[in-house]
């Protein structure tokens, strides 16, 4: 170093690190601004009107839940029915995928060789094949193989075969039917007094929460296990049942019957919905299982050892010590799996389940309004994703370790 | 050293983005001005091509015909690479009329979306690809439709075993339907007109739809009748094609025919009169087998004009299409009349000619030839 003069020829200003950073950031900002302007400029030429949503739809959609919109309703109404379908698919899917993921994730860490291998095979098979292929597989290879409607399976079965040649008559009360047209289940129809019962249910919920609070306080004060959750459920069930009697039994059982070409009465879980649900749940469940496994393994080993030392059994160790700590780690990645499940439900169009993308495609075909409709679809998914994220972030903040 | 590479990297990314932006810009311009772009293109080609298609085809020595490759019976690409079907036979007939050789055809396989652009851009001489004649295609897309070769329409396919004989028997049924421009709308209109409730199962692709229909997840399958017939002919479910029936009723109008570019009336007339000539030959009973007899002895004046021969010592009449007056001789001897083309291609897929709109007007259908004089 000594041989080199510190004061050499003046360095160019471009050798100054601050100048460079400023230049690079300005250039990047300029690019972003130019791209934004370009998009704006393109959009200006488009006539973006949304009036077509008020027009007569002209088509029908199946699988409506709680609505019966038809050709004479507005396109917007049918689109809303599509959104309802997406929500119920995603809602049920998220709950089941979480349960499946928890079980499979814990099973991966099981000491039982068979259980952990089975979980491994499930996770690796499902995680490494495309979802669309799985959806079509479940639909065509599993659910479409059910018998035709005229050969519907009675549930529970009329007879039970003990040995191949002995058949014992079983309770025969045509509770449910299963065929390629779906699973027909009894459903409740409301009668007078239902409103009163709803009010009583609300009171039951409030009372149950209060009782739970009291039991939880007691547990904290006395140190005695006071089972607040059981008390919560018990209180709710008791008041709900009494209220049901007080209101005069306001629900009637609507049993399905096998018609010539459709089921009459009851509700129907269709093959399309079932195939989608199973595909989405098993697919997302596999990813959640890996998250659960990783999160459990991230809990320090000392925690398990310490809980064993104070005499907790394996189930208590998991449910009281390791799982609550792992939750903190697993919620953010699980949130993104929930978002994936919701967005993946758009693949439903392949097997004729009319969720929002399926309905919007029909609207686009009929009106040619591709860009406005896609903007609406994007906005709908964005809104749903933001709501899921908001809920999950709220839950996460309650589990965050409070540090000072 | 590090910063130098960083700068080079930033410069490269900028360059890539800039190129990308230019490329995107071009794409979007095309997309936005869709129909307008087509119109201008057509105007350009019109200047070049007015009255020239015939000369171009003769100079080239072959006809370029836009066809389908996936509808058995209409336009289908065979395993050996050749095209076969009702539509492709009309291409061959036009080649026979213009060039005297029904094999002098180059088939260009086109998608539904690309067909009118290909026609407008002059990539093909004539489009014969299950194309429905509509006002906007005649107007906006600058096509000229020749005589209708096939009256198609949306229909319903059901299982014979279900005992459904008309759409009015279909109350409470489930119907499988493919997403299309108007398919779902026609279906809803027809069931509403009959006051029938039904459940649509709307699919995006034919594969899962056929699987659902085969598994009896739906009672009916609706689409254009030609498509239903093609699917029925290859039905692999229990009982095969015989277990399915396409109901007689047609609940939308889909008239199909050859299309040429606007602005070349001579060429449009040639295409039109080749089709009409084949229909006329059918009305007169002139087939590929007996055409030689009629050439030797036409028997009446209109047959003589059709075949371009003299009648009772009279002169050969030139009716002014710009072709040799005997152009139909090659068509009829190499391809045959309308009925022969129909029987060879469409009857095998299960749409008989008798009793449908595609029967001759002499038998109560709509296939009718204007007079040759």
Q: If you had to describe this structure to a student in words, what would you say it looks like?
A:
The complex is a heterodimer of chains A (404) and B (373). Chain A has 404 residues and is α+β, with helices and mostly antiparallel strands. Among the domains of chain A are: 198 residues, Orthogonal Bundle (MetI-like fold), CATH 1.10.3720; 67 residues. Chain A has 11 helices and 10 strands. The model of chain A has no long low-confidence stretch (mean pLDDT 88). Chain B contains 14 helices and 15 strands. In chain B, the strands form 5 sheets. A 5-stranded mixed sheet of chain B has the order 11-10-12-9-13, with helices on both faces. The radius of gyration of chain B is 25 Å and the shape is flat. The termini of chain B are far apart. At the A-B interface, α1, α4 and α10 of A face α1, β10, α7, β11 and α8 of B.
Spatial strand order of the main sheet of chain B: 11-10-12-9-13
Q: Find the structural class of chain A using helix and strand composition.
A: alpha+beta
General form of chain A: globular
Work out the number of β strands of chain B.
Answer: 15
CATH superfamily of the domain at 75-142 and 270-399 in chain A: MetI-like
Total count of helical runs of at least 4 residues of chain A: 11
CATH class categorisation of the domain at 75-142 and 270-399 in chain A: Mainly Alpha
CATH architecture group name of the domain at 75-142 and 270-399 in chain A: Orthogonal Bundle
Q: List unreliable stretches of 5+ residues of chain A.
A: none
């Amino acid at each position: 170093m000594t041989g080199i003069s510190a004061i050499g020829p003046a360095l160019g200003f471009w050798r100054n690190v601050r100048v460079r950073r400023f230049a690079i950031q300005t250039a990047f900002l300029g690019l972003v601004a130019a791209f934004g302007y370009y998009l704006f400029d393109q959009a200006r030429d488009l006539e973006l009107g949304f009036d077509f949503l008020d027009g007569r739809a002209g088509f029908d959609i199946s699988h409506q839940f709680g609505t019966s919109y038809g050709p004479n309703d507005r396109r917007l109404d049918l689109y809303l029915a599509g959104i309802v379908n997406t929500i119920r698919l995603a809602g049920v899917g998220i709950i089941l995928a979480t349960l499946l993921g928890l079980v499979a994730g814990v099973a991966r860490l099981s000491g039982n060789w068979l259980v952990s291998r089975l979980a491994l095979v499930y996770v690796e098979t499902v995680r490494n094949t495309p979802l669309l292929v799985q959806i079509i597989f479940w639909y065509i290879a599993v659910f479409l193989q059910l018998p035709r409607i005229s050969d519907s399976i009675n549930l529970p079965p009329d007879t039970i075969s003990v040995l191949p040649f002995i058949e014992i008559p079983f309770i025969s009360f045509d509770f449910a039917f299963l065929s390629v047209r779906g699973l027909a289940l009894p459903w409740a129809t409301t009668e007078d007094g239902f409103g009163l019962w709803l009010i009583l249910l609300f009171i039951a919920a409030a009372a149950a929460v209060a009782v739970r609070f009291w039991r939880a306080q007691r547990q904290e004060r006395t140190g005695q296990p006071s089972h607040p959750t059981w008390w919560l459920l018990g209180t709710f069930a008791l008041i709900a049942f009494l209220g049901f009697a007080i209101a005069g039994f306001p629900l009637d059982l609507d049993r399905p019957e096998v018609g010539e070409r459709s089921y009459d009465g009851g509700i129907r879980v269709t093959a399309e919905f079932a195939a989608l649900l199973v595909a989405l749940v098993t697919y997302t469940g596999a990813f959640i299982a890996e998250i659960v496994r990783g999160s459990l393994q991230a809990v320090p080993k000392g925690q398990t050892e310490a809980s064993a030392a104070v005499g907790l059994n394996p189930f208590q160790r998991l449910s009281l010590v390791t799982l609550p700590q792992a939750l903190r780690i697993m919620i953010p990645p699980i949130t993104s799996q929930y978002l994936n499940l919701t967005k993946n439900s758009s693949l439903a169009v392949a097997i004729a389940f009319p969720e929002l993308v399926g309905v919007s495609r029909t609207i686009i075909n009929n009106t040619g309004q591709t860009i406005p409709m896609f903007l609406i679809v994007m906005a709908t998914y964005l809104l749903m994703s933001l709501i899921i994220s908001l809920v999950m972030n709220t839950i996460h903040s309650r589990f965050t370790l409070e540090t000072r | 050293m590090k910063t130098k590479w960083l700068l080079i990297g930033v410069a490269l990314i900028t360059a890539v983005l800039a190129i990308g932006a230019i490329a995107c810009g071009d794409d979007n311009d095309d997309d936005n001005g869709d129909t307008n772009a087509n119109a201008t293109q057509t105007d350009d080609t019109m200047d070049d091509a007015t009255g020239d298609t015939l000369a171009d085809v003769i100079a080239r020595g072959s006809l370029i015909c836009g066809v389908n490759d996936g509808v058995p019976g209409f336009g289908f690409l065979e395993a050996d690479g050749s095209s076969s079907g009702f539509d492709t036979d009309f291409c061959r007939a036009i080649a026979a009329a213009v060039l005297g050789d029904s094999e002098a055809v180059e088939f260009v396989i086109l998608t539904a979306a690309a067909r009118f652009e290909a026609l407008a851009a002059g990539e093909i001489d004539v489009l014969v690809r299950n194309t429905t004649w509509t006002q906007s295609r005649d107007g906006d897309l600058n096509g000229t439709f020749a005589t209708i070769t096939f009256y198609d329409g949306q229909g319903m396919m059901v299982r014979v075993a279900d005992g459904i004989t008309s759409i009015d028997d279909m109350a409470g049924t489930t119907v499988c339907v493919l997403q299309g421009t108007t398919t779902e709308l026609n279906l809803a209109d027809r069931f509403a007109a009959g006051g029938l409730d039904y459940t649509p199962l709307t699919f995006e692709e034919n594969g899962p739809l056929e699987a659902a229909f085969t598994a009896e997840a739906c009672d009916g399958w609706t689409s254009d009748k030609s498509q239903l017939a093609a699917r029925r002919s290859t039905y692999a479910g229990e009982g095969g094609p015989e277990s399915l029936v396409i109901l007689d009723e047609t609940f939308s109008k889909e008239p199909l025919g050859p299309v040429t570019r606007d602005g070349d009336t001579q060429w449009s007339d040639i295409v039109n009169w080749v089709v009409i000539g084949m229909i006329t030959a059918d009305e007169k009973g002139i087939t590929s087998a007996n055409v030689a007899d009629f050439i030797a002895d036409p028997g009446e004046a209109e047959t003589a004009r059709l075949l371009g021969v003299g009648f009772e010592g009279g002169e050969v009449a030139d009716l002014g299409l710009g072709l040799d007056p005997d152009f139909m001789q090659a068509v009829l001897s190499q391809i045959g009349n309308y009925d022969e083309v129909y029987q060879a291609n469409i009857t095998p897929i299960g749409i008989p000619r008798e009793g449908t709109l595609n029967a001759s007007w002499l038998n109560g259908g709509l296939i009718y030839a204007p007079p040759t004089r």
